[in-house]
Amino acid sequence: MTTPKLPAAYHLIALDSVGSTNEEAKRLAVLGENAAPDGTLVWAKQQTAGRGRRGREWSSPPGNLYTSIVLRPDVPLARMPELSFVAALAVYDALESLGEPGHQVHLKWPNDVLLNDKKVAGLLLETESAGAGEDCHWVVLGMGLNVGWHPDDTPYPATSLRFEEWPVSVNQALEAYANSFLGWAGRWLDEGFEPIRENWLRRCKGQGEEIEVRLGNETLTGTFIDLDTSGALVLDCGGEVRHITAGDVFFSTPSGSIN
């Protein structure tokens, strides 16, 4: 595994294989700042037990980018979900810097990145604090990017950089993401969530359109109006405005079906 060139703010832990980069990052984070200082980046060539949102399996063969960053921001626990939007912007800008003309990159609420209307990256955020309202002890920000391979049996269509004919290596993808994340994280710490929210909305898919949001026990259809100040999706369901904090979004296709 060739070592990527990362900014000095990161402490890289490169592994050939691991069950889950998030689990390894969490294990180190619990040991304290000496074991996992702010900016510790766990990177694995493959995962044998990768996880996505809601405990879903994340297929993780060699050839893709699997990474988790340990962060120790001095901010309240309630603000930690904002980091998913920070990271989504970082992935977006990384892809823009690596890509070629003719491709479309969009952000999909709450924490996916789309390439040509198919999922190419996802994020998973896990935290620990002393208790409600307390500052965060640490947060682990996992990111998976399909570089050389993508699954075919996902609820939302997936793709990879290689499938879209982008000649990008895993190292190049990691370097671009790490550099971009530093910039957006710094802006979040200095200016708060509002500029993150505004920039995310400029890059997202579906705002102003009818979407379907699948929750644990119901499915909602309505117009995607906005993100509120906490990052919740604001959905107009025929005059009833709902603020949704967790769910899976699907979009209408030109034929009118939901995808």
Report the radius of gyration as a whole number of Å.
18 Å
When the domains are counted, the total is: 2
Order of helices and strands: EHEEHEEEEHHEEEEE
Biggest sheet record? 7 strands, mixed
CATH class of the largest domain equals Alpha Beta
Low-confidence stretches: none
Descriptive overview:
The termini are far apart. The protein contains four helices and twelve strands, in the order βαββαββββααβββββ. The protein folds into two domains: 11-203, BirA Bifunctional Protein, domain 2 (2-Layer Sandwich); 210-251, SH3 type barrels, CATH 2.30.30. The chain has helices spanning 21-30, 82-98, 170-191, 194-203, and strands at 11-18, 40-47, 65-71, 105-108, 112-115, 118-129, 136-145, 210-214, 219-227, 233-237, 240-244, 248-251. 23% of the residues lie in helices and 31% in strands. By secondary structure, it is α+β, with helices and mostly antiparallel strands. A seven-stranded mixed β-sheet has the order 1-2-3-7-6-5-4, sandwiched between helices.
